[in-house]
What does this fold into?
Amino acid sequence: MSRVILCKSLLLTPSLFSAPLTSFKPTLPSSSSRVHRMATEASSSPSSNAGGGDPTSSSPPPASSAIDFLSLCHRLKTTKRAGWVKRGVKDPESVADHMYRMGLMALIASDIPGLNRDKCIKIAIVHDVAEAIVGDITPSDGITKEEKSRQEQEAIDHMCKLLGGGSIAKELGELWLEYEGNSSPEAKIVKDFDKVEMILQALEYENDQGKDLEEFFQSTAGKFQTDVGKAWAAEIASRRKKQG
It folds into this structure.
């Protein structure tokens, strides 16, 4: 019953289409140029041109490159979220499960002037894609934030090369960098969705499995950057308190 009430609450936001969204285009000089160079180098390699055509155009990658990339992304469906595994949660969600509900959050959130909803959905889909290679690295793994970022950057570079370079690979890399750098309104709200999804999942595991997952709520307290994130987190906290 709590899940039904929660779902209805999330949907009681202003109309998704009450006002047109305007596109926000952040400037990422150093990071963006690095991805552009990486995509260009990848597209000039022999394997990148296997499908023929102009690799720098906006056309989709060759079928072979697309299937190679998608097959690699299969690991997102089988990689369990490490935080839940370490807390003994039964049948924990996968990385893909987490990203999918974040994409839904971006879809149903109320309109915000100057925010590009489509970009939010794209960032939600892309933000953890490097975990198909590096896995779900958590603070308890003893890996520094800088080293984690370096490993994930290498994974993104590899995945962009797997796509054959070109504009689509470049966009994937830039979306990931935008999220990683928290460098736009879209990145900031998706960062909040990342935390909201985690505490919502924590509440569901507490209800379903009788777990005490207080640490996940504590780790996100006071860290929400947007009004939407703060409101949704407060609603989840309120429901958790009532369920006591």
Q: What stands out?
A: The CA atoms of residues 173 and 227 lie 28 Å apart.
